Amino acid sequence: MDKSLGWLILWLQLDWVSSKQEVTQSPEALNVRERDSVVVNCSYTDGALYSLQWFRQDPGQGLTFLLLIQSNQREQTGGRIKVSLDTATRQSVLYIAASQPSDSATYLCAVRHSAQQASVTNT
């Protein structure tokens, strides 16, 4: 049986993202067949990246954290999900292997700017 999965990709800006930072994702929407691989791109404009996070959101639910990748890392993997980061091109890619109907969700990326790291002070 040929099943098609519907995907909706949205842009997200969290409070800790620099106001000068622009984050875009592509494609905006994606239909895939069950067991196909999925590729979602996230591009950002400011090169002073500290970390990039990927989330998913099921209809009517809050955000679910998937993976975090820091600027000094090239790849992170968790189960069927892999995230790559290329700071030279300012792009992260989310890969989902062997997609399943339960993967139907909204996928979001968020960028944390390096200047926004919390400073620690000993007293």
Automatic annotation (TrEMBL):
InterPro entries: Ig-like_dom, Ig-like_dom_sf, Ig-like_fold, Ig_sub, Ig_V-set, TCR_variable_domain. One of its GO terms (cellular component) is T cell receptor complex. It comes from the Eukaryota. Residues 21-121 form the Ig-like domain. Pfam families: V-set. Residues 1-19 form the signal peptide. GO terms for biological process: adaptive immune response. One of its GO terms (molecular function) is peptide antigen binding. Keywords: Adaptive immunity, Immunity, Immunoglobulin domain, Receptor, Signal, T cell receptor. Gene3D superfamilies: Immunoglobulins. This is Ig-like domain-containing protein. The lineage of its organism: Eukaryota, Metazoa, Chordata, Craniata, Vertebrata.
